[in-house]
Amino acid sequence: MRVAGVLLILSALALGIYGIDRSLWTDEAWVANSVMSSSLSGMFYYPSWLQTTPPLFLLLTRGVVDIFGPSGVAFRIVPLALELAAVACMAVASSRLMSFPFAFVATALMAFHPTAIEYSRTCKQYSGEMAASTAILLCTALYLRDPVRRRFWWLVGAFIVALPLAWSSVFLLPGVAIAVFARGGFRRAGSLVLISGGVLTVLYLVLIRQNLSPDLRAFWIESAQRLSPGLLAVVILCLIAGVRFLWTREWMQFVALLPCLLLAAADALHWYPVSQRTRLFVVPCFLLIAAMTAQDLFDWLTRRRLTPRLVASVAWLIVIAIGANAAWKQVRNHENQPIEDFADAIPYLRQHVAPSDLLLVHASVIEGFRLYNEMEGWHERAIYGETGWPCCRRGSATTQGASSEKAVGEDLRRMIPAGFSGRIWLFYSGRQTHWTWAGLDEGRLWRSLLSNRGCTPGDHRDLINLTITEMHCFMTR
Fold it and tell me: What integer is the mean pLDDT of 16-33?
């Protein structure tokens, strides 16, 4: 498994590097801006947005950026490193729980998971959530195999590190605590719960509580993924695995199973959102359950009549097919292209905006503008819009569908000085999903309102999900 594990790590590295230098988009930009805050307080309690990123992820990213300087690659080194750590832990954990072919396939399915690949090169915490889960699963597997004192404290240490790296680690705590109780007694289980609970309490009081709002909860509920046939099949498989646990009493299956069931329940109760990225932390749990179940079924059907070499050869073919398909999808879908091309937009504005011009930056692109304005060393004094914000701005309600023509018109009059004549540059989002959420295409409305005042359009530049429009105005008020 060592050679296979190394190959999977190298494959994950190659897929993560593909597109790692692409422009950061809005969701990444506000994380990057908070990392570049002048103080740790400004990073943990970012003034502009609710800080939902765990503190350890922020600290690690801040350290890397301090060493290498701010760049798209520097902001993504930590997510990529955490993805590789997740693959390594999964390889070791699965090899302790099942035979090589099933461990190899399970690890490959995680390494080549499209969402895992995407967030290995995205400045967000979700690859860290997967790394935290796999580290906990590995430490738990080692402890349950040999429940000695040293391995117990390694397990406790895994939770101490995982909780500030990934809030989702709390989903694994109940299952691990019950398994520890079954193998190590009440004292060890109680110590694990008390220490982990203490860490979580401190994190809640110091960081989490100050970064929550009803708007954020409403946004999570609205954006959560509905139960699809595929997710329903996953839930059914987990229930079958639960019945199987009652028969086998294999505690590692229980540890991997319970987070999946808890996440499904939390989503049904609107306590925790389930989307492709927020459920990444249970992917290793589910794959372990599926692989262990598949191995037992395979052994029962074949009665071990097939030679280990033949089964291993089939596993290699399966993994090669999965990896080739994952690589082909990355190329076919142009995953190396940015979601929003701030890296090209800001240099273009820097080249064309004159000191006498007005530059109006819509709320939908403020964070990306600020980030690349700073990295480019431009320091242009733009005028920021106050309507059509994405969720979730600190201290301000940003509800879905709240945009109105009246509010946009009043905000535009605020930004343009009375009697201004000259060029006005408009910089705004081109992502239709944002305008659908806001309830109105405010970029188009900006152009329309200025045209009604006698402004004539000039250069119009459509970049990837970003738009720059030049307007020539005479006495706009």
Answer: 93
d(CA 94, CA 247): 21
DSSP 416: S
Phi, psi of 272 (to 5 degrees): -150, 130
What is the average pLDDT score of the chain?
88
Cα separation, 326 vs 283, whole angstroms? 17
Q: What is each CA distance from 375 to 28, 270, 342, 401, in whole angstroms?
A: 14, 39, 11, 33
pLDDT tier for residue 224 given thresholds of 50, 70 and 90: low
Between these two residues, 393 and 36, which has the higher pLDDT value? 36
Q: How many CB atoms sit inside 10 A of residue 414's CB? A: 11
Confidence class of residue 223 from pLDDT cuts 50, 70 and 90?
low
The one-letter code for the residue type at 221 is: I
pTM, entire model: 0.90
Q: Could you report how far apart the first and last alpha carbons of the chain are, in Å?
A: 72
Range from 126-130, 230-234, 359-363 carrying the lowest mean pLDDT: 230-234
Give, in order, the Cα–Cα distances in Å from 334 to each of 8, 95, 310: 22, 34, 36
Radius of gyration of the chain (CA): 25
Alpha helices in 283-427 (DSSP H): 283-302, 308-332, 342-352, 366-376, 405-415
For 273-276, the CB contacts below 8 A with 24+ separation are 273/220, 273/221, 273/223, 273/224, 274/224, 274/225, 274/231, 275/223, 275/224, 275/225, 276/115, 276/225
Asked if omega into 392 is within 30° of 0 (cis), the reply is: yes
CA angle (242, 260, 233) in 5-degree steps: 75
Lowest mean per-residue pLDDT among 61-65, 262-266, 423-427? 262-266
CA angle 36, 336, 85 (to 5 degrees): 65
Q: Which amino acid is at 252?
A: M
- Phi, psi dihedrals of residue 144, rounded to the nearest 5°: -65, -30
